Amino acid sequence: MKVSLSWLKEYVCVELEPSLISEKLTMAGLEVDSVEDRYEYLDHIVVAKVNEVEKHPNAEKLSVCQVDAGGDELIQVVCGAPNVREGMFVPCALPGAVLPGDLKIKKGKLRGEVSQGMLCSAAELRLNSDTSGIMDLEGEFFAGTPLEEALKLSDTVFEIDLTPNRPDCLGVIGVAREVGAFVEPRQKVMLPDYTLPADRVINESIHDYAKVRIIDSDLCPRYSAGLLFDVKIAPSPFWLQERLESIGLEPINNVVDITNFVMMETGQPLHAFDFDEVSKGEIIVRRAGDDTDFVTLDSKSHKLEPDMLMICDGQRPVALAGVMGGENSEISDSTTRVLVESAYFNPVSIRKTAKKTGIATDASHRFERGIDPEGTVNALNRAVSLMAKICDAKIAKDIIDEYPQNFVPLEIDLNTNALNIRLGTDLNAGAIGEILESVGFDIEKIGDARLKVGVPSFRVDVTRPEDLSEEVARLWGYNNIETRFPLVPAKGKLLDPKVILREKIRQIIVGFSFFEAINYNFINENFCDKLNLPEGDRRRQVETILNPISDQMSVLRSSMIPGLFETMKKNISQQTVTLKIFEIGKVFYATQKGLLPEEQEMIAGLITGNRTDQTWHSKKSEVDFFDLKGVVEGFLDALMIKDRVFEKLEDNTCPYYKKGYAAFVKSGDSIIGTLGKIDEKVLKNYGLKQDAFVFDFNLSTIQDLLPEAVIAKPLPRFPSLSRDITIIVGRDVTVGEILEQIEFIAEKQSLIEKVFLFDIFEGKPLSEGKKSLSFRVVYRSSSKTLKEKNIKKLHTDISKTLLDRFDADLPD
Predict the structure, then answer these.
(1) Is it true that the peptide bond before 409 is cis, omega within 30 degrees of 0?
(2) Are 65 and 84 in contact (CB under 8 A)?
(3) Where is the FDX-ACB domain (predicted)?
(4) The total number of structural domains that make up the chain
(5) Is the pLDDT of residue 493 over 80?
(6) Long-range contacts made by residues 71-78, C-beta under 8 angstroms, separation at least 24?
(7) Interval 85-89 mean pLDDT
(8) Across 154-313, where does the E strand assignment appear?
(9) One domain for residues 427 and 352
């Protein structure tokens, strides 16, 4: 929205500097994008004195003038104006000047004579419409004075970036109302005269010639029209052209220019029809229905949709309502009777029509944001009055004003105490009322802290007390609102334990060089078959999405593992073959129809590829089950979950694991989750070719197993002793069973501090089906330094117990 300062001053008296006006408009919510000097094009144009005038030797109608333009020497200018004479002061465009119409002035020759500039007419400088000769500056001037300074030409154009909720400022009057609210003292906007000139109104009623019928009043709540006779189509007067050009609009003819002028003045779009082209003198406002094509003013044909609102005459559509008129009823040089439309259209309807047709006009821009439903008649009268004067026309008595859905004024009960709390201000009800009244609100005081606020019809964005709070804040000044910090108690509320646990888990697993993955909760419905889940498995109770974003995301996940496979696949496709990822999220199990699914929070992880990057000092070595088991043990150690055991997964609970390469993780009677190597067939289902190892744990179970308190104990004062035990057992004997047996003995013997497996061997010279296991037992006393004799008997008893319990042999 462009507004010139000179135009603005017609409605409000403002003497502030343009920079200050720009700042105050911006702070009031009307952001000023740019501020331009309207007469910037007068640079390099100065006042010059004509000292000598001689006939051009080679052209009868040209003169050669010696001109004082303020320099050290006179300059020569060839001039064709008939009124040039010695001693007159004139505008002179020096080389480098650019006149309206992109006319660039430079030194050259005209018919053989040097010309070092141009003596200008007022029309050439767009100062008035006089083209009879060069501009005669009456009075005394100093040669060389910039023309803008000499004539005191000053005007500023503000370009305002309006938000969609402020259509009331899409007219100069609306902006003037805002300016009047922040000048001192506050001013109310001075509206133009909306009464019709009595000497132009004839005794013939518009109802005798025209009628309006609104069929679809839901899309057109109000339609007003006026009629003029004996209209003379001609170029607009200079003042009207100048107003339109100041804001970037191109003049067309007097009738069209007046509709544009009134639209830019009031914010109410208008349209003028050639009434002789309106069949039967009838205007019908209806949906397009069966009409399929329409040619607009720009001679382009548009496909119509049934719901588009059209302005029709007795036979055909003549305008796309609120968007653009039709070629079949446009104003032409032969027009003598003009019907002027001023209406209010449904904003949503206009927005849809403009979008579907691809037409964006100044009118649609305003209609689709919402105009003043009570302003149609005033704008109509303003336009008709101007047309009567400028076009020398006669006005038909009366106007048509079809108003099937009357506007109901909105009243808001405003609690000023609540407003002050909301804004952090301390304004009394009187001050608040004065602020709101300055921009057109009606105020009725009720008690000391309540106001009944009548919302003006042009403020379509104000519907509740919070909107009034915003009005007060922006008009009083955001900068005047004191910055206050809330009174926050020193003791903050503790985070939910589950939130703390999630963050702790993230820190621990990231410490094992894992990256966190975040996948959609929606997955493909065939994931159960890809994981080989048996019928009856709870994970087959999936919740179907009614409106999925794609066919690949049609159900809520009941397992985290498919998402990890997809992440693995994407990384491998990018040549990242070594991967450690984890995800914390929820899985969902469908319940009864119509009820929300059951949610369960899980943590799952995946490793694949090599243990380390391949370098000159390390050989390629792929990860295996024990790499993942080590991560899990370290993870549970960090969470201080004790008494955990890994049990071989024998049943068909998790058929996506390779048989013999998977385990339960338990602590007491609680199953934390599972881990194992993924079966090759499952990997193939997901298009994967390299081994992958996965763990899948229940977060709620982990939380239940966390210790309530952590007990610290001092560092040991005495050294430890370590002894090894190597036994040969059957391949079906698990290391966990042996460790469990040793730990059972350790519970009775305080000297045993730690036991762990440090070597395993299979193959010759051992018999088939046998394996060698080597364990290290660490002994320590809390009261003395141990010697060999202190642990010899205990170590021998442990060895014998293992040999008897597991039918083991000692190595040769």
Answers:
(1) no
(2) yes
(3) 716-811
(4) 6
(5) no
(6) 71/144, 75/116, 75/117, 76/113, 76/114, 76/115, 76/116, 77/115, 77/116, 77/117, 77/118, 77/119, 78/110, 78/111, 78/113, 78/114, 78/115
(7) 92
(8) 156-161, 201-205, 211-214, 222-229, 270-274, 282-287, 293-295, 301-303, 309-312
(9) no
Beta bridge partner(s), residue 709:
none
Kindly state the DSSP code that residue 663 receives in the 8-state scheme.
E
Tokens of 321: 């309502």
Q: Do 631 and 507 share a domain, yes or no? A: yes
Please state whether beta strands 410-415 and 450-455 pair in parallel, antiparallel, or not at all (unpaired). antiparallel
Cis ω on the peptide bond leading into residue 251 (within 30° of 0)?
Answer: no
Q: What is the pLDDT of residues 774-787, one digit of tens each?
A: 999 999 998 899 89
CATH number of the domain where residue 592 is located: 3.30.930.10
H helix or E strand, kind and range, residue 466: helix 465-476
Last residue of a domain, one of 355, 372, 402: 402
420-463 per-position pLDDT tens digit: 999 988 999 999 999 999 999 999 999 889 999 999 999 999 99
Query: Is residue 471 marked as binding?
Result: yes
Query: Token pair for residue 43?
Result: 């640079």
Structure tokens at 812: 């040769």
At residue 731, the pLDDT reads 86
**Contact status, residue 717 vs residue 656, Cβ threshold 8 Å:** no
Q: Is the dihedral of CA 388, 392, 394, 400 positive or negative?
A: negative
Asked if 380 and 224 touch (Cβ cutoff 8 Å), the reply is: yes
155 is in an annotated binding site: no
Cα(33)–Cα(162) distance, integer angstroms? 10
* DSSP category for residue 728: E
Q: Are both 377 and 298 inside the same structural domain?
A: yes
In a domain, 710, yes or no: no
> In CATH, what number is assigned to the domain containing residue 790?
3.30.70.380
What is the domain-level CATH number for residue 128?
A: 2.40.50.140
Q: Are residues 624 and 763 in the same domain?
A: no
In a domain, 488, yes or no: no
- Residue 778 belongs to some domain of the structure: yes
Reported as a pLDDT band with limits 50, 70 and 90, residue 346 is very high
Phi-psi region for residue 135, left (φ > 0), alpha (ψ -120 to 50) or beta?
A: beta
Q: Does 433 lie in the same domain as 289?
A: no
Answer yes or no: is 111 within a domain. Answer: yes
Other residues' Cβ atoms within 10 Å of the Cβ of residue 41: 16
For the sheet with 2-4, list strands across it. 2-4, 156-161, 31-37
| Residue listed under structure tokens 């419409």 | 129
753 is in an annotated binding site: no
Q: Which of 674, 705, 736 is the last residue of a domain?
A: 705
The Cα–Cα gap between 66 and 115 comes to: 10
3-state secondary structure of 212: strand
Q: If DSSP codes are grouped into helix, strand and coil, which group holds residue 144?
A: coil
CB 560 within 8 A of CB 604: yes
CA distance 157 to 160: 10
Distance of alpha carbon 512 from the chain centroid: 39
User: Is the torsion defined by CA of 169, 172, 178, 179 positive or negative?
Assistant: positive
260 and 270: one domain? yes
Residue type, 257: D
Residues 214 and 317 reside in one and the same domain: yes
For residues 526 and 588, membership in a common domain is answered with: yes
Q: What is the pLDDT of residues 156-200, one digit of tens each?
A: 999 999 999 999 999 999 999 999 998 888 899 999 999 999 999
Q: Show the domain range for 671.
A: 497-705
